[in-house]
Design goal:
Elements: H1 2-6, H2 12-41, H3 45-54, H4 56-88, H5 98-126, H6 147-184, H7 189-224, H8 231-253, H9 258-294
Length: 295
């Protein structure tokens, strides 16, 4: 996040990755809330579970978790879509514009924020529920006990599944376009390396999304069919599976970028050079001191 903010000349891709980092950071806030609650209520959770699920903090955590998961999927879709349009139509400025990226992000963020807010009002005010349906504060339904939570679960499943399918299709089309372009061009080594890197990046993003999104979509879809699912399964998905995707995104979209790698290479090289100069300077001082003692 800091590397993208400090970058002087930003483009549409930087803005989209910045939004993805912020949405993943929101899920990190949810995890911190759950971690602090676990530390505070450990040993006496049974007696305070009801008050915890009724608290504003737990309700806020549920709102943030659902907002993060939906916006993150939408941001990944936009990153893939803008990349595909740039590869397919390299001379179209529209999909390289920061203004276009911000407008798409703003529309999506406002849409999901409004929908989740309306679902929260529906659940807590219209249906009259006073507490979250599970101790993990997830704004999901288990067994379709509430129309509002059922709608929230459907929103999550449809968003992630549709984004996942579109992302896989766009990456396949992008790979085919790159292969066609490479076949028409002269066999230049640097060009081949860039295409190989792009193919590796495409495969990495696709596999990570499938591995993290598909299990959660399947489990929450089954829960809507009134199939009994243990709360520990939902806990593992919320605390382990989903954060893996949030942790992989910065690695795939930041540390794999050539300019960022060049930045770290220069940083470590400069530090190494300074340490080497300091060692040489210390060695020279010691040598001069020994020479004076010998004289």
């Amino acid at each position: 996040l800091l590397l993208r903010v400090r970058k002087k000349k930003q483009n549409a891709f930087d803005v989209l990755v910045l939004c993805l980092s912020l949405s993943d950071g929101i899920y990190g806030i949810y995890l911190l809330i759950i971690a602090f609650a676990d530390m505070k209520l450990r040993g006496n959770f049974v007696g305070q579970e009801d008050s915890w699920r009724k608290s504003i903090i737990c309700k806020l955590a549920g709102f943030l978790s659902l907002l993060s998961m939906t916006v993150s999927a939408y941001a990944l879709f936009l990153i893939t879509f803008f990349r595909f349009m740039t590869v397919r139509y390299p001379f179209k400025y529209k999909y390289k514009s920061i203004k276009t990226a911000k407008s798409y992000l703003g529309i999506g963020f406002l849409f999901f924020s409004l929908i989740i807010s309306l679902l929260s009002i529906w659940y807590y005010i219209i249906e009259g529920h006073s507490k979250v349906s599970n101790p993990n504060c997830l704004f999901f339904d288990i067994g379709f006990q509430s129309y509002a939570l059922g709608s929230a679960t459907i929103l999550f499943v449809l968003t992630q599944m549709s984004c996942l399918i579109v992302i896989v299709v766009l990456y396949i089309l992008m790979t085919l376009s790159l292969k066609k372009a490479q076949a028409k061009m002269a066999a230049v080594r640097s060009r081949s390396q860039s295409h190989s890197f792009m193919s590796f990046h495409v495969i990495s993003v696709t596999v990570s999304n499938i591995a993290c999104w598909l299990p959660s979509c399947i489990v929450y879809s089954i829960s809507l069919m009134d199939y009994p699912i243990h709360i520990s399964v939902l806990t593992w998905i919320a605390i382990v599976v989903m954060p893996i995707n949030s942790a992989l995104n910065p690695c795939l979209f930041t540390f794999s970028a050539s300019k960022i790698k060049l930045f770290f290479a220069k940083y470590f090289k400069s530090n190494y050079t300074q340490q080497l100069d300091a060692a040489i300077s210390t060695k020279d001082k010691t040598k001069n001191k020994n020479s004076r003692n010998n004289i």
